[in-house]
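Data card: per-record layout.
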Amino acid sequence: MKKLSARRRHPLAAVVVLLIALAATGGLYTLFAPADKAKADETAQSLAIDEGKKLYAVGCASCHGTGGQGTTDGPSLVGVGAAAVDFQVATGRMPAQQPGAQVPKKRNIYSQAEIDQLAAYIASLGAGPSVPTENQYNPEGADIAEGGELFRTNCAQCHNFTGKGGALTTGKYAPTLEDVDPKHIYEAMQTGPQNMPSFPDTTLTEKNKKDIIAYLDAVNSDKSESPGGLELGGLGPVSEGLFGWIFGLGGLIAVAVWVAARTAKAKKS
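The structure for this 269-residue chain is written out next.
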């Protein structure tokens, strides 16, 4: 008893007791809390996949196959990822109404919860891009000027200089980017839907994508003004060149005709 009392009075006794208490608390937390949370998350994910599989069987399997392997009417969905599902279904492009050169955007028929379930099921078939978080696609604080450079370099060839859209070959087209949800723009860059090439983070970083989204938000904002005056639809050099050709060259021809007429009249007199 005397030895025990002496140890209790030792200067390090309180520290040892505190360390033991902390170790016991940490061990109990590790043993119980995370396991329960992980199990709950696993159960919720499993339920989402099951519900998504049911939705897939009704609305998608006829074209993409019962296991997402693809058919002659639709490509394989193995490895496309949750982001591709969220983009295609949330914008109403899928399920498609009819086959064609390109599936247009239309009214969405699924709730966001159902879209999440479909995405969970497709993601379970193979790894692919995940649905981005708001922090990834929120343009607040992004570099608009840098986004404009990136957009004109990588996107303007199809979508035109301010994202107004444009025609492609054999009935295809680049859709307008006006009033498109920033999340869907990010997902489109990440997954490359339909005729669009994909821009993974190795090609355009997360910051690059945010900058592009910020640029599109700036040029398509109701409050934005064209620094060059009349924007002529924002379609770039085609409409501007046509305007210059018709009115500029037309004006010069009119002046030349007027000068010639005046000269001929002066000679006669």
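Known properties of this structure: Strands lie at 166-167, 173-174. The chain has a mean pLDDT of 84.

See the next section for split statistics.
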